[in-house]
Amino acid sequence: MTASAIGALALILVVAPLLPALAGRTVAFLTGRRGAPLLQPYRDLAKLLGKGAVYSRTTTGVFRLAPAVVLGAALVAAGLLPLDGRRGLAGFGGDMIAFAGLLALGRLLLALAGLDTGSSFEGMGASRELGFATFSEPALFLVLGALALATGESSLGGMLGAPLARAWARAPATLAMVGVSLGIVLLAEASRGPVDDPATHLELTMIHEVTILDHGGPDLGILLYGSALKFALFAALLAGTFLPRAAWPAPLAVAALLPALALVAILVGVIESAMARLRLVQVPHLLTGAAALAALGVVLRVR
Amino acid sequence: MDRFGDVVLLLVLMTNFAVLVTGRLSACIRIMTAQGVLLAMLPLASGARFGVHIAVLTAGTLAIKAGVLPRILRWAIREAPVRRELAPSIGPIGGVLLGLAAVGLAFGVATRLPHAAGLAVEGLVPVSLASLMMGFVVLTTRQKALSLVIGYLMLENGIYVFGLTLAGDIPLLVELGVLLDVFVGVFIMGLVVFQIQRELESQDSRRLTELRD
Amino acid sequence: MLLLAIVLVPALGAVAAYLDQAPARRAAWLVGCAALHLALTAVAWRLAPAAGAMGWLAFDPLGGLVLGAVSIVFVAVACYAVGYLRREDPRGGRAFVSCLLAFLASASLVALTRHFGLLWVGMEATTLATAPLIYDPSDRHSLEAVWKYLMICSVGIALALLGTFFLATAHLTAVGPHGAPLMLPDLLARADALHPAWLRAAFVFLLIGFGTKMGLAPMHTWLPDAHGEAPSPISALLSGALLNVAFLAVLRGCQVVHAAGQDGFARPLLIGFGLLSMLVAAAFLLGQENYKRMLAYSSIEQMGILAVGVGLSGVATFGALLQMVGASLTKASLFLVAGNVLIVYGTKRTREVSGLLRAMPVSGALLVTGLFAISAAPPFALFPGELALLAGAVRGGRTWIAVVMILLQATVFMAMGAAVLGMALGPAPAGPRPAPIREDRWLVLPPLGLLLLVLLLGLGLPPALRGALAAAAATVGGGAP
């Protein structure tokens, strides 16, 4: 447990809500609008946390449990990730499976909560959320597997640490492919375009937004924060893949996280404004492509 | 391991996957053009000393595979009413999965083959085999006559990849003969494709099944 | 120089015929080039020049046999085409003669080359030269046939190219960069040093690739369509010349494998493909209703016999090579006669043809004679070949192969015999023209000449030919009786 790891964790917890805002701001800029202020998410969160919650009489405990589990899973996952480029707060051998599993747990509770409302809209959102996950999760596993094979490490701290820099020198093409695949997975997991459209509030086209439609007050605030944190975690994973910082001095490695996350958010915004949202049937095609890229990376490494 | 050659080979694999996922014929032709450009880069990566031989081979590959062949194919479908592969027996996801299986199989076979001397690029044999098998996937799952020609080209390109790295050891005359044969072959295929869509007004090779016993 | 001329004469003739504006003179170009080619081939047989064209080309007994058969068949087809062109519009239009001559050039290249790369180039060129000849713009069936022919053969030949590259790799891996890889003499000289795994892979791909072109089952599916739909002279050329050229390409692979001492790997493959081809041919011949397709399946059967013969080795290989020469001439003759029948009767359906012997006495007699010749009945050239083949099987301790072959061939004979006799006998059709019809000399003499040659070869094998057959058989591990 090092100071740099704690510092990096604190940093990402603080700046996480900024990322969706920055991506949205980029889209707004590219489409000729001004967009919401960057600090708006914090104000929204403060407002939501100050409110009381209203629960439908048809809901059960699962509905109330969901926000806590989503946030908790994301927090633990954040602890596993080597945010300072060295090792996570609680890294261990094979923790990459725990990382993927925790995020899946959050998604499961979210879907259950959506179904719990008994509303067909939330049910549709939950079904889409899980349907796409069947494609994005294998892709994520293949990405992590390819990284593990390329570096010979089984913990996130190892595979994003010093061995990764050596692997980049050895097999840049493979890692580039894996990185692109991870980028696509990020778009899906963070519910950004062209997979999802975070700006819409039309139920038929939403995926993530519609699943949490019935949550209000502090619950909604926690869910929003949780999904922002998930975005931040994937952004950090992507940044760690393309930019191994193990050899850098610790303060610099932590500080570099900030521009790296910002860059990822801006890139997401650029992609979102450059591409129309995919038709729902095409989303699995995109995610299969991502999985194929990562699988190719695995094949190229297994020899 | 030759870095440049490996990247080119990877991109060749990517273009094959791209053909497997796309149904639009014009897009397939564009992808094959890109593949032709990639193939033209391979002699440079083959490790043979740069000279007249390599230069002519690169220029010839570029001219035929990236220049003439796509033009012939585009000519062949210029009057086609339907420019999509309408009824592939597998969708894009199935195509990708079969492609992945082909790549896995190719790498598995290649590691069992004895190491080949004279191959400058390590990934050459598996990529060649994988392209060959992916060409077969296209040949067996598509119905449009032009798609089959593209499958044949993929298969041929896979074999060509293998041949290009023997560039130093195979006489230029033979390599150019191979290129010429492929050119004439695709030219005649293009003519036939054109006639098929004229005749059947659908370009669907499944309707060419009247000759049987 | 002589060898180069054998390839270049038809190639230049093809260009000249295309540039010549007068359609009548194109036929003259065709016959002239064919005759010149035959003369040059005869000279080559006499002189047996060692190597020419910077070592790319050479004359050896194996190539010489195929070259001779191709040249003779081509002369017959060229003469036939003169009569044929008077009646039918040629397919391929102006390019008809040029395509024929281009085929002759590429087939000669395959027969003479010592370089596996050039061999491949020549093989693919034969496909491309013949494809336009099969295609008839007004006939949808021919479109289907040419499409299958092009796609299946091109894919098959592409696999053979991979086999060729594997062969080069086998050379480079084990021998290193000494000598030219893919040059037949260099490969044979260092054969025992070739890398066995790569060599085996190479042989498999060469066999499948060139076997596709040769019509071996299960890669034969294009053959009945192409041979059935092509105009008759082209069918004769495909059956009588092209299949043997493809067989030669397979034999070149066998040569290297034999020299490398890998016979144990190659021979079972050859026997397996061969027997399967015979089985498939026999099955599809039973109840075959189209006489051109019947002849096509008979070609598949012949190719199966050849593959089995080479696989059996010993005397059987000698027999197979003799069969190759005999079947090449006989099958060409049969397809030409079938063309005559088609011109007069206007149908390919066996059941709608009857009374050939009354209506067209010469063609009818040739058809029946040809049936016996192709079934290896004495005294035709295929008979001693067949005997040597069966003797080789029995002597090699594989009597069961001989039994299976005899059973399959008996089936084929019965199926073809029933069809041919049905066509030949019976009343002549009541038509506007009284039977017998006066038959065009150009259309009758070529098949007659071919059959006479088969008869002569059967009555007594010239010593030069016997020596060439024995020498050719020895290169793939066979022996003379």
What does this entry look like structurally?
The complex is a heterotrimer of chains A (303), B (213) and C (481). Chain A is mostly helical and 303 residues long. Chain A has 13 helices and no strands. In chain A, helix 4 packs antiparallel against helix 5 and helix 9 packs antiparallel against helix 13. The mean pLDDT of chain A is 87. Chain B has one domain. Chain B contains seven helices and no strands. Chain B is globular, with a radius of gyration of 17 Å. The mean pLDDT of chain B is 82. In chain C, a hairpin with a 4-residue loop joins strand 1 and strand 2. In chain C, strands 1-2 form a two-stranded antiparallel sheet. The longest helix of chain C is centred in the N-terminal third of the chain and has 36 residues. Chain C contains 19 helices and two strands. The two termini of chain C are 35 Å apart. Chains in contact: A-B, B-C. The interface between B and C is large, with 44 and 50 residues.
- Report the average pLDDT across residues of chain C: 90
Number of strands of chain C: 2
Low-pLDDT segments of chain B? none
Round the Cα radius of gyration of chain C to an integer and report it. Answer: 21 Å
Query: What structural class do the secondary elements of chain B suggest?
Result: mainly alpha
Q: Largest sheet of chain C, order of strands side by side?
A: 1-2
Order of helices and strands of chain C: HHEEHHHHHHHHHHHHHHHHH
Strand count, sense and barrel status of the largest sheet of chain B are: none
Order of helices and strands of chain B: HHHHHHH
Which sheet architecture does the biggest sheet of chain C show? 2 strands, antiparallel
Radius of gyration of chain B, whole Å: 17 Å
The SS-based structural class of chain C is mainly alpha
Amount of helix of chain B: over 70%
- Total domains of chain B: 1
The termini of chain B sit apart by 53 Å
What is the 3D shape of chain B? globular
What oligomeric assembly is this protein in?
heterotrimer
Beginning-to-end CA distance, first to last residue of chain C: 35 Å
Most extensive interface: pair and counts?
B-C, 44 and 50 residues
Q: Residue ranges of chain C: pLDDT <50 for 5 or more in a row?
A: none
Kindly state the number of beta strands of chain B.
0
